[in-house]
Design a protein that fits this description.
Length: 187
């Protein structure tokens, strides 16, 4: 049996199987423990930090003892929202103008791409302004792609950062790694 698809069918399939978030959703996998109780105010959130631990200090009876914070306060730099006016007449005349449809399309077309852009910029800024000043701007090609990948993996291992790792790379980098001399692939 032959299935014939027209442009409307293909548009539906493209929409259904289009990639959602490229950055935001993989990153939120590690932040599921952030709850409403962690929000200090409208624009701040407390997140556990696992660095900067101090040696224990001598306890001073009946005096003020120095306290150490195990949570770091982050200012939220991105706030998204939506406001649309939809009246009952609009909803009764057009089945597409339902609140669920509007919010779903807004999420897909506006919110997710915006979150990905903000997350990518934050990662870039963090990498560029790191204390070791090892931000690399070399051009990646088939000769050095595998070395760049191995260097990134070695950094994570040497700094005892638990895996699995997510590496955001371009399709050009991925192709260069596949075509590197040290990589064998079966076709």
């Amino acid at each position: 049996m032959t299935v014939v698809l027209d442009s409307k069918d293909l548009a539906k399939l493209d929409k259904e199987f289009a990639a959602d978030s490229q950055i935001w959703q993989p990153l939120t996998g590690g932040a599921k423990s952030v709850t409403a109780a962690d929000f200090v105010g409208v624009r701040e959130v407390r997140i556990n930090k696992m660095s900067g631990f101090m040696d224990p200090v001598q306890y001073k009876r009946n005096e003020d003892n120095e306290r150490k914070a195990i949570r770091k306060l982050y200012a939220l730099i991105m706030k998204t929202g939506l406001v649309y006016d939809v009246d009952e007449l609009d909803m009764s005349e057009n089945g597409a103008l339902q609140v669920a449809n509007i919010t779903q399309e807004h999420q897909r077309l506006i919110t997710i791409p915006h979150r990905d852009k903000v997350a990518a910029q934050a990662m870039y800024d963090t990498a560029k302004e790191n204390v070791n000043n090892n931000f690399i701007t070399d051009t990646i090609d088939a000769q050095n792609a595998l070395e760049a990948y191995d260097t990134a993996e070695a950094y994570m291992t040497d700094n005892e950062i638990p895996g699995g790792y997510v590496m955001f790379v371009s399709s050009g980098f991925y192709t260069a790694v596949k075509n590197s001399a040290g990589v064998s692939s079966k076709v």
